[in-house]
Amino acid sequence: NGGPFGVGRRAAKWDDMVQQMRQHPGASRASVLIADPEMLVRAGLQAVIDGDTAFRLAAEAATGKHALELIARLQPDLAVLSTTLSDPAGIEVAGRTRTLAPATAIVLLARADDTASLIEGFRIGVTGFVRSDVGRLDLLNALHHALAGEAVIDPLAAMALVRRLAAETDIAAHALPDPLTPREIEILQLVARWGYKDGRAYT
């Protein structure tokens, strides 16, 4: 079954793989590429990834251009991309990754109130959307779910999107018979379907 990000569910299969990796450290780990312009952020992401036996850091990039070069060459299992990337912007890197490496799961790192990137992420087909200040355990949980093909979104980002669409509807209601575009209506319906557990939102 597909989720709102256009990704099928393979959670049970991935959970089995993770368990096998932890029981057999020599087994193949999922390759992860991280891309963020800040060195300290990349160091933090690397520490999180290195601390989980299910993952291995394949490469890191500080610019959008370098990230695309690495993604095309390495075809990582997962790409963690910051929306603050430039040359090109992070959201553009995510979109081009869908073509360069179709099998790569994409998780965007952004501010919780960056609803523009969230909406564009829906259009592109990214796998997950988490806050740039997300905690270690929440980030690992998001990465595992993304690799399982299970779309994941930070609940604060989901609420920010709902508030934005609600505000736009209220402002436009006095002038337009149908204030939301078809795409905005679709996104709001998808947000309404998300289920919450442990403070996080999943499809």
What does this structure look like?
With 203 residues, the chain is of the alpha/beta class. The chain is 49% helix and 18% strand. The chain has 8 helices and 8 strands; from the N terminus they run αβαβαβαβαβαβααββ. It has helices at 11-23, 39-50, 64-74, 90-100, 115-124, 136-147, 155-172, 182-193, and strands at 30-35, 55-61, 78-82, 105-110, 128-131, 152-153, 195-197, 200-202. The longest helix has 18 residues, at 155-172. The chain is globular and about 45 Å long. The termini are close together. The relative contact order is 0.14.
Structure keywords:
203 residues; alpha/beta; globular; disordered N terminus; 8 strands
Low-confidence runs: 1-14, 192-203
Mean pLDDT: 76
Helix content: 40-55%
Number of helices: 8
Radius of gyration: 17 Å
Query: What is the β-strand count?
Result: 8
Q: What is the subunit organization of this protein? A: single chain
Largest sheet: 8 strands, mixed
The helix-and-strand class reads alpha/beta
Shape: globular
Strand order of the largest sheet: 2-1-3-4-5-6-8-7
User: Approximately how much beta-strand content do the residues carry?
Assistant: 15-25%
Give the terminus-to-terminus CA distance: 11 Å
Q: What is the N-to-C order of secondary-structure elements (H for helix, E for strand)?
A: HEHEHEHEHEHEHHEE
